[in-house]
Amino acid sequence: MAEPAGGRPVTVSDVQQLVRRKDEIEAQIKACYELLEGQKGVGMHEPLVDAEGFPRADIDLYQVRTARHNIICLQNDHKALMKQVEEALHKLHAREKEKQAKDEAEALAEALSQQQSLPQAFAKVNAVTPGSPASVSGLQVDDEIVEFGSVNANNFQNLQNIAMVVQHSEGRPLSVTVIRGGRRVHVGLTPKRWAGKGLLG
Question: Which residues form a coiled coil (predicted)?
């Protein structure tokens, strides 16, 4: 099984199958060697004839010859299989690398497109007093403000703009849009008098 049918990519189960086959061949080789051991320890190279050149009578020549032949064939199969395992693993790793690179590229592209579609922020929340109208509305420290009522990046000049909007909107809900953690979040904020300073806190 050099290449899975239909030229499809190598999978982990293909590799596992190759490894199982390799284990089977190794077990067969071991069994053949054990058989040779059982025949008075004749290995792969001991002579099969006696001193006078007659076939040895103390061993089963047929069994020994067959075992030796099988070992040679199995070792060749084993070598070829190891090459296949190596190639399959190589392909598998190359595909994993490719997939990882593709995933990273997609994640990067998505992050970039999100950044591009996010509006321009003109101010950043650096403090929110607990219990204040800002806190109650859900504003958080590090929120980047992109819209505060009618104020946005295009018409914002200074914080006085925000102060004006707040004074004119006392007791009325204001639509505030912020960027939080790379996402656009809408907050309903009602400026009003509270225990602390100002109408927002």
Answer: 82-118
